[in-house]
Amino acid sequence: MKESTPKTRILDVASRLFYEQGYNSTGINQIIDEAAIARGSLYNHFPSKRDLLAAYIERAEDIWFTSLEKHLETIKDPKARLLALFDFRKKEQHNTGFRGCQFAKVVAEVPKEDLPIFEQVSKEKDKMKRLIKKLLSQIDLQNPAGLSIDMLCESVFLLLEGATVAASLYKKDAPIKNAKTIAAALL
């Protein structure tokens, strides 16, 4: 097995710690100790903790969408693919012990003035909205509520996001199951 590079170890450790205990509660010394690297090595790869956070978000987005694509790859029906977004969220919440959305956790911790981090997280959320809208455009919608595609997209997105927060709060997947049922009714 190939040994990981110091940069990979740093990012692996920081990613785990930022998600499990929070960005603000994770210190550089803890990352250095757990990654088993020299302080200079950390700063050689990431000039600041903030730069490490940006790398974490970028990597988390890549991992998230790669996993999501794999989850959806065998599902051909667009409506089933759309509703499978809820199943994926449910699976991810089970896998993380209902710790919530890693991107939402980041924006809850960074100062409101850190616009580049907010923009980076917004980019991830916008990518999800584009996927939802694409799937909606492929569905023969019954749309009993009479909503536009944009409003349906926003509704499904908010159901996903809100259900993830509620599942994290209650440590149960019932909110995600209920959100999926509501989304199906909207379609």
Automatic annotation (TrEMBL):
PROSITE patterns referenced in this protein's UniProt entry, alphabetically: HTH_TETR_2 (PS50977)
Q: Which residues bind DNA?
A: 27-46
Note the InterPro entries from the entry: Homeodomain-like_sf, HTH_TetR, Tet_transcr_reg_TetR-rel_C_sf
Q: Cite the entry's keywords alphabetically.
A: DNA-binding, Transcription, Transcription regulation
Leader peptide range in chain numbering = none
Task: Please report the stretch or stretches of sequence annotated as the HTH tetR-type domain.
Answer: 4-64
Which PANTHER family does the UniProt entry name for this protein?
HTH-TYPE TRANSCRIPTIONAL REGULATOR YJDC, TRANSCRIPTIONAL REGULATORY PROTEIN
Protein name in the entry: TetR/AcrR family transcriptional regulator
